[in-house]
Amino acid sequence: MKKFFQQYYINLFLKDRFFAALGFCVVLFLLKFFFTWLGDIPEIATVVVFILLFVDIFILYRIPKGIDAQRFTSKRLSNGDENPIQIEIKNRYGFGVNVRVIDEVPYQFQLRDKDFRLSLKSAEVKSIHYNLRPTKRGEYEFGFIRAYIGSPLGFISRRYNFDGAKVLPVYPSFINLGQYELMAVSRHLTEMGIKRIRKIGNSSEFDQIKNYVGGDDIRTINWKATARKGGLMVNNYTDEKSQNIYCIIDKSRVMRMPFGGLSLLDYAINATVALTKVAMLKEDKAGLITISETIGSIVPADRKSAQLGNIMNVLYKEKTRYLESNLEALYSSVRAVVKQRGLLVFFTNFESLSALERQLPYLQRLSKYHLLLVVFFENTELKTLSHAPAKDIEGIYHKTIAEKFIYEKKLMVKALNKHGILSILTSPQNLTLNVINRYLALKAQQRI
């Protein structure tokens, strides 16, 4: 009895057309008081309405599973990117039906508009496509797929509940990694904003001896090989390989600032994943260190194929902390872990010149043993405010303060350069491209 109640009553909904027909019957009964010639027409109309109701129930419930629905997603979602979701609907009835599909997306999205309406002919299959953009890493749980089916009579709708419960992890952005991989080896780097850097001199890593062709540098002619071969032969050099590239991510409170739905920490994590991919493509070793008031995760530099997955699994769990980063502990860990000179890309943020000055001694000590690149962020809201015209005295005050903070950011860049520390001051949306640009430039200039 309980199963019958759940299958037929809970999932049965009367539609507007039935109530309209019932209302018409009520009107006929009222008119009968004034127009006796209506006779039994109201009763007959009421009986017809209920007969149609039961016919509609019969044709929708005579098949146990008249509709199939299934959700297709990737095994994991990419943070900050548009992730495609597909729902496939199949009609098993012998007639066309109207379908309303409601997909219960994870609560983190706070979306109530994933409501789709379509018509299906007999045995027809249709797909629904939409995108979801997560802005936080973690686990996202999908709920039921609910399909409301109406026959051509349109008196009732039958609800089908398809168990689409699925928990998907949201990882750092990985959808666009293929584009960065392509750009790293392509001659068309400027299509994605990645610039080609002219090399200065030759790399010191020997690759092969090859025949001389027009345009080769005559300074690379190998005279011994030329004498043996009887034709001009030149030495071919390649970029230095197996360099240590460590991304250091600050997890302190300064990285909690939101931009475009993502925190600065999320932008730094996405840029780290992209830089790791490009560095491994260049046959360098990529590693990771996270820091807050204490040392967080450490992934020693390596270039094995599983390294990117290891770094993503670590970054998947990272969250911001509320205390200031301990750069003294970072210096000790770097000295203990990174034995050879390499490139340290430090993702952090400084909101004032005094904040930088507190950390500057530790940054100088790091730059003494490694090539240090400090990456911090522009405050885009302040930049917008400084460019907007002031309408009153209060507006002038706000604009002046905004320009002061923007000027301090420029002073930070100068202060770092003064002490021989490389820096990038960038907006969050341009972070990944700017970091990859600088890495490729340093590789081309043989500074790593």
TrEMBL record:
InterPro entries: DUF58. It comes from the Bacteria. The keyword Transferase does not apply. Residues 209-353 form the DUF58 domain. Pfam families: DUF58. The chain crosses the membrane at residues 18-38, 44-63. Coiled coil: none annotated. Keywords: Membrane, Transmembrane, Transmembrane helix. PANTHER family: BLL2464 PROTEIN, SLR2013 PROTEIN. This is DUF58 domain-containing protein.
